Amino acid sequence: MGPTVSASASISPAELSAHQDALLLDRRCGRCAERTSALAVLRGSTCGACDAHLTWNGRGGVLAGLDAQRVLPRRLGYVLIGVSSGLLGVLPFAQLIVQAAGLVVLHLFQLRRPLLWLSPRRRLLARMTLKLWGSTLLVASLFGSIVLAPLHAVPGLGTLLNAGAHGVAGALCTVLYIEGGLALLRRRLRWEAEGRPLAASEWGPPLVLLGALLGFATLVIGALAAVSYALRHLSVPGTTRIVEWLLSVGS
Ligand SMILES: [Zn+2]
User: CA 241, CA 246: separation in Å to the nearest integer?
Assistant: First the structure.
C-alpha cells in the first residue's frame, strides 16, 4: 500500500486536487496512490484497493491532462528540427538523418506515453499505424531530396533553395508526424474511455498508409531514374559527388 493522501491543514483543496490528478496521470489512485490500470483511470472506475472513485478533478478530463503535458518542448522540437534541416539542406541528403533522428526522439517524448494508455491490441495497431505514418513521411522527404538534388550542382542559388526547401520540409514533416500521431491517439483514448472494443475500421488507416508508402517508394525509384537520365543527357556542368552517385544508381 502506498502513502495515503488526505486533506490536511497544510494543503489547500486546489493543491490536493492537483496532487490527486498527478497521481492519476501516473496511473495511481488519487487517494491511496496504489497502482491502477490506465483503463480504470480513463473510465473513472473505482480503485481496487480503497474503493475511491478515480475521478479527474481538473478541467477537460484526464485526456486534457495528458494533452497539456510537454506542449512547449514539442514546439521547441519543431523549431529545432526545422532550423537544423535548413542548415543541413546544403549537404545532399544530410537532412534526412536529422529528420529521422528528430522523429524518433519526439516520438519517445510525445507519443510513447499516450500509447501506453491504450489496451494491448489497440496499442499494437496504433503503434503499427504510427510506424507506417513516420516511414511514409520519411520516404516522401527522400523523394523531395532526390528531386532537389540537381540543384546542388548550381552553386549559390541552388544551395540556398535546397536549404530553404529542406528547412520547411523538415519542420512540416515533424509537425505532421507528431500532431497527426497525437490526433490518432486522442481519438483512440476517447474510444477506450467509452469502452468501445477494437473495430475492424481501425485497420483502415494502416492499410491506407501502407498504400501511400508503396506509392512514395515507387516515386523515389522513378525520381532516381528521371533525375539521373536528365543529368546524363543534359550534361549539366559542375556535377557534385552526389549527382555522380545518382547517375551510378540510375544506370
Ligand atoms: Zn485507492
Answer: 9
Please report where in the chains the cell 512547449 appears, as a residue.
72
pLDDT in tens, 141-183: 999 988 888 887 777 788 888 889 999 999 999 999 999 999 9
C-alpha of residue 101 to centroid of ligand 1, in Å:
40
Residue 244, pLDDT > 70, answer no
Question: Ligand 1 centroid vs 28 CA: distance in angstroms?
Answer: 8
Which residues are CB-contacts of 154 (< 8 A; sequence separation ≥ 6)?
238
Distance of CA 18 from the midpoint of ligand 1 (Å): 16
- Ligand 1 centroid to residue 110 C-alpha, Å: 28
Q: Number of helices and strands (H, E) in the chain?
A: 10, 0
Q: How confident is the model at residue 125 (pLDDT cuts 50, 70, 90)?
A: very high
Q: What is the pLDDT of residue 153?
A: 74
Tell me which of 9 and 20 has the higher pLDDT: 20
Report pLDDT for 62: 80
Cα angle value 115/120/125 (rounded, 5°): 70
Could you tell me the distance, in angstroms and rounded to a whole number, from the CA of residue 40 to the centre of ligand 1? 11
Q: Domain spans of the chain? A: 13-66, 70-250
Residue 25 is placed in which grid cell?
Answer: 496521470
Instruction: Compute, in angstroms, the gap from residue 15 CA to the centroid of ligand 1.
Output: 18
DSSP state of 108: I
